[in-house]
Amino acid sequence: MAQKNKIAAKSQLLDAVENKSLKQDIPHFEIGDTVDVHCSIKEGNKERIQVFTGTVIARKGRGTSETFTVRRIVNNEGVERIFPLHSPNVVDIRPVRSGKTRRAKLYFLRKRTGKAVKLAHRHSGHTVTK
Amino acid sequence: MAILLGKKVGMTQVYGERGNFLPVTVIQAGPCVVMQVKTAETDGYNAVQFGFEDVKPSRRNNPQTGHADKANTVPKKFIKEMRLPDETEPEYKLGDSITVSVFEENESVDVIGTSKGKGFAGVMKRHGFAGFPASHGTERKHRAPGSISSFASDAGHGPGPKKGKKMAGHMGHSRVTTKNHKLVSIDEERNLLVVKGAIPGPADGYCIIRSAKSQPKRVASDKEQSND
Known about the structure:
- The complex is a heterodimer.
- By secondary structure, chain A is mostly beta strands.
- Chain A has one helix and five strands.
- The model of chain A has no long low-confidence stretch (mean pLDDT 86).
- By secondary structure, chain B is mostly beta strands.
- Chain B has four helices and twelve strands, in the order E-E-E-H-E-H-E-E-E-E-H-E-E-E-E-H.
- The mean pLDDT of chain B is 87.
- The chains are: A mainly beta, B mainly beta.
- At the A-B interface, helix 1 of A face strand 1 and strand 2 of B.
């Protein structure tokens, strides 16, 4: 029991350090949602915002290393980007459209092309209209 | 020159100022009590002795509890001494408490610890020897050291292989210093130091944290900036 308490106390200290790096105001989005990810990109001294729009197909990890994967089709070629959820470079995440899904990882979308890529729309309160 | 005793909590990752992901080690450091102040008059040299982490007085013998009593504290588990310059009077007082506030953020620190024991290790693991090929007729000596001496190479060195010849043996569990860690953040409330990179020893292992003895030519943060 004493050993268990010791481990709990230790992870509390680690959490205290990690918590400073965690974002408190992450918008709610679900697997299958179409999101706009606003990324800040530094070129020399200039800083600009780039928006990547696509379907969230996976969310994994926890704490500071939590990531989510966004997939979109560009010129008939699938493009996936993995964003660290808590990175300061990911400035904003805006859910645009909700997609109906029955699983947590949508890797089956990789085999699909054309119209089949599109998920059925689900009316949900957390999406914003453009 | 600041020094502090501590205990490794574990490793994690945090985001730096410019959004870079840093691997960090969390150390529970201090508060350390000054157990003894040594001066040139009484001891022949100037030094200060710190103690870290309380232990029940019943677990220590009379000389050890008596030593702690002099500093008006309880016996400590981990006691280490820091040498001070001989010319000046030591500015520490018996019974003083030293906390993480002796360090500043973004300072470079060295960490001294006892590395994890690896037991009796062969030459490939211990010294990075290349070993022998996996196939092409190699039999029973894939990880062997090869020849350790010859009549010609040992000429003038007396009988047997040369002294210091790298061979298999006990590896790890030795004092190791890792230099110039960037101090990423300090938590004065919880007595935590967060340093960039890995430090020697297991979690819960004791370590000594001191201001870096030799500053790197380019501080780590400068290097990262130039990479942008």
